[in-house]
């Protein structure tokens, strides 16, 4: 049993999502390096094919990303990010699932919302000038994530005196800013940002204390899928981190995570189905 009453619903653009059970967010990267072939048409086709597969496997939401924010990645100009993301949104508009866009640029947020995005997933927690206004002007949901530093350099020397307290304070502050800026609480999701300016120990401490974050009373999203913390713990390269990723995902759900951002949707669904059956019987 969790010591708090978790939120039951999330308003999410064209959808109202029930949070009674954990939701699976499938990752859809549309960075050129994420598909081996070249041209834009080929990438669009590959992206929509991959999206259909994620939906068939049981994804509750799709998270479309046009900028790689992996440690050390170079920034992408906003107009290029828009050229990558908007055609995918147009192609998937009627796929029956909420479409999330992983971006920290207000220009990209506005374009994405004009093209039907239901959720803005912002690793910068709406700190960019104009980001709050872009989200307020719509009825989308927003994910506010914690990051220390910038993707290019964030893993060089992450430092906290009290990682759990600092991440919690940051997220509480960003939630207040969003609410004061006109975004209702029933549209807001929070995320500790596993791997974003954090050592392995920081990540483990955050996952272990996720119930403290969940106690803020907002749905918690967690992304651990294939991340380097799984590699560090198992010694596996990125293509062999499924078992470790599922284990971390379940540990997060047990501590109150309500949305899990994953690459391997079918396997995540299986893991959740088994856990849920046991939980229901308890
Ligand atoms: C996350 C994300 C995450 C949210 C990425 C990767 C890095 N958005 N975007 N939370 N991670 N909200 O998938 O390895 O953890 S990109």
Question: What's the gist of this structure?
Answer:
With 282 residues, the chain is an alpha/beta fold.
Topology:
Blueprint: E1 9-12, E2 15-18, E3 23-29, H1 40-56, E4 61-65, H2 78-92, E5 99-102, H3 106-114, E6 119-122, H4 131-136, E7 141-145, H5 163-180, E8 188-191, H6 200-208, H7 210-214, E9 220-223, H8 228-234, H9 242-254, E10 257-262, H10 265-281
Parallel strand pairs: 3-4, 3-10, 4-5, 5-6, 6-7, 7-8, 9-10
Antiparallel strand pairs: 1-2
Helix pairs in contact: 1-2, 2-3, 9-10
Features:
binds ligand 7PJ; 17% strand; 10 strands; alpha/beta; 10 helices; 8-stranded parallel β-sheet
Model description:
- This protein has ten helices and ten strands.
- It has 282 residues and is of the alpha/beta class.
- The chain has an eight-stranded parallel sheet with strand order 8-7-6-5-4-3-10-9. A two-stranded antiparallel ribbon has the order 1-2.
- Strand 1 and strand 2 form a beta hairpin.
- 47% of the residues are buried.
- Ligand 7PJ binds next to strand 7 and strand 9.
């Amino acid at each position: 049993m969790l010591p708090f009453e978790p939120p039951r619903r999330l308003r999410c653009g064209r959808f109202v999502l029930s949070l009674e059970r954990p939701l699976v967010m499938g990752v859809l990267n549309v960075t050129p390096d994420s598909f081996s072939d070249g041209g834009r048409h080929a990438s669009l086709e590959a992206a929509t094919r991959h999206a259909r597969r994620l939906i068939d496997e049981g994804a509750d939401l799709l998270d479309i990303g046009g900028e790689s924010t992996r440690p050390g990645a170079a920034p992408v100009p906003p107009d290029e990010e828009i050229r990558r993301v908007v055609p995918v949104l147009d192609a998937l508009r009627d796929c029956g699932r909420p479409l999330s866009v992983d971006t920290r640029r207000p220009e990209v947020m506005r374009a994405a919302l004009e093209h039907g995005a239901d959720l803005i997933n912002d690793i910068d927690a709406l700190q960019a000038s104009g980001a709050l206004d872009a989200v307020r002007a719509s009825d989308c949901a927003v994910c506010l994530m914690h990051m220390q530093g910038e993707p290019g350099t964030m893993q060089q020397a992450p430092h906290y005196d009290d990682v759990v307290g600092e991440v919690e304070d940051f997220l509480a502050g960003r939630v207040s800013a969003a609410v004061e800026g006109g975004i209702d609480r029933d549209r807001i999701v929070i995320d500790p940002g596993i791997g974003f300016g954090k050592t392995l120990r920081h990540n483990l401490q955050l996952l272990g204390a996720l119930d403290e974050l969940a106690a803020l009373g907002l749905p918690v999203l967690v992304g651990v899928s294939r991340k380097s913390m799984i590699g560090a713990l198992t010694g596996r390269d990125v293509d062999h981190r499924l078992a470790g990723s599922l284990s971390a995902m379940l540990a997060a759900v047990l501590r109150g995570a309500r949305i899990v951002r994953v690459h391997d949707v079918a396997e995540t669904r299986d893991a959740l189905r088994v856990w849920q059956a046991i939980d229901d019987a308890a």
